[in-house]
Amino acid sequence: MEIAVASGKGGTGKTLVATCLARILAEYNPILIDADVEEPNAGLVIPHRVIDTKPAFRPVPEVDMKSCTLCGKCAELCRFNALVVLPSEVMVFTELCHSCGLCAYICPENAINEVNHKIGVVEESDLLSGGQLITGRLLVGEVQSPPLIKAARATRRQDSEYRLVDCPPGTTCPAIESIRDSDFCLLVTEPSLFGAHDLELSIAATKLLDIRTGIIINRWQGDDCDVGIIAREQDIPILERIPYSLELAKSYAKGENPLTVMPELQVILENVIKSVKERVA
Amino acid sequence: MKNIAICSSEDKAEAMVDGRFGRCSYFMVWNPESSDFKSLKNTGIDAAHGAGTGAAQVLLQNNVGVVLTSRVGPKAFQVLNSAGIKIFQGQDNISVQALLGKYLDQQLQELKQPNN
Amino acid sequence: MKELLVLSGKGGTGKTSLTASFVCLAEKAIACDYDVDASNLPILLKPVDSEGHEFSAGLTANLDKDICIDCGLCRDLCRFDAISIEYEIITLSCEGCGFCSEVCPVDAISMSERPSGRWFASMSDIDGKMVPLFHAELRPGEENSGKLVAQVKSSARQKAKEEGYSLLISDGSPGIGCPVISSLVEANLVVIVAEPSVSGFHDLKRVRELLALRGVRSTLLINKWDLNPEASEAMEKWAQECDIPCAGRLPYSSELAAAVAVGEVPVSRKELHDLILPLWENIVKTLEKQNQIS
Fold first, then answer.
1. ipTM for the complex shown
2. Does A70 reach chain B within 8 Å, measured CB to CB?
3. Domains, chain B, ranges and CATH?
4. Preferred mutation among C138, C185, C213, C294 to probe B, highest tally of B CBs within 10 A
């Protein structure tokens, strides 16, 4: 079973939930995938040992100027303006390229080859609590994160009954890429106007993907605020509420195990796993 | 003689300049031999990415040797520079015609690096 | 015209609450929200008079099944798995590259503009002071190319130019990708809002790396510093070494959380006003100093 842990906005406690679930599921040797490749933080709050780091690539065009006749067809057809044909050369802007392969396919002289361009790394680690951590890390300045997310999601040392995906925030391509093939999506939100607004957007995205969804309210202080209204309107269950705790915030900031600091969190998240299982079954 | 392109907000020489190279609406291209303007629609403007390189490609196909613009990004600069097209720092809030006049009077500075 | 951009590597650091506060404290400014993925500034600044505009970015494929001869070429060549077995275009997956449309032997596929979202020009009534606000909403599942950010920015700057505003205060988008890079264009100073945690420090360094790459100056503001005093100190020391001035620290405040939970701008409460004002004054000083240098 694959559970995506996502949120409309950042800082709602997505990584807290994902890493605690990994700790709770330790006996099943879960695979925790940090798909928030722009800001991969899971590894910072859960002890692990890095086993291997592999570069991740995507294909980009390389023009063989010996065969190129400067006909301009590649530049004309590239929808991303990644190729420019000059009077005596063809310039390739890899950061604009979406790796669609059209230019190489249509070049009348077969002068375009696709070569690997490094976009980041996929780190494979063993979790000290049990299981694996797969972290995608995007190179600073690189703009195409979905291929790296795909690579991170495809990496595993061995299969497990449970896969947990710590997703990037928001509802754009990277979030969609992280959530799309999961069996269930946990949306972590906070009981505020911001939380409710962003939750509504996230629900729209999971409905678009047709993925079963449940809500966890984090930093709960006795009131669901507008989150409750959105959940009712959209007919999405609120699975659990994690109470607000300053102590938890403080210890989490130092990288301590939240389950030790707040023992009831264990029970709350065990309940979450139970309800997710029931809903997926 | 090569043509001179000016980033413009509309397709006429009396129009105000557009400060952005990649995302300007039109290029007004002045032919120094005939002293005529012709307008080129900047097809790069709608691109999600790569407006600058797309715009530069348009100019390359229209025998342009000089561009007058307020702001040009690093990728477009690289293309223009490699193609031997000179870029002169334009001004804001001025008409296309007036900016061309300033260039012809040698009042504009050549841009030696991208500024956007 | 100067632009002050508020950024943080990760979300949830209090970036939006602070941006809204700065907008209220500034004498005369235009507010912008570049977080087109989850626009929250309007929740605090409450636009009263909004003018919406459609926005499209890139293209999407359309397949005419009446013409299609079921050859499968498009499906084989599409790298984004955007064409289903039944020849439906999966818009969510389509990158708009046009490969399918180019190779289709019977021209059954055309490309059309892709509606991606809306942007808004509004006015906010902040205790009687009318402040222009620019923000946008991306449709779920659409690519945040940075183009919508650029649209919001250029509309705001246009307004500033026309009506003589000399300051833009912008709420940046989270992360370090395309939208953030678009937010940075023409920004004069970045306020990095960071939380003193292991991950906060990590994110701060990545943002700083990006700013260095783009040559943009910054100032550091630590929010909820008392959650981890040692980390706060380490961050400030690091900032000093990187020649980043510190705008100051804010303690953890349940008052701030309470204000934001009900959609109030923090500085509308006296206690928070007094906490945030000195930080704002430091930021203004840094911005002015910058003017003298540039």
1. 0.87
2. no
3. 3-104 (3.30.420.130)
4. C185
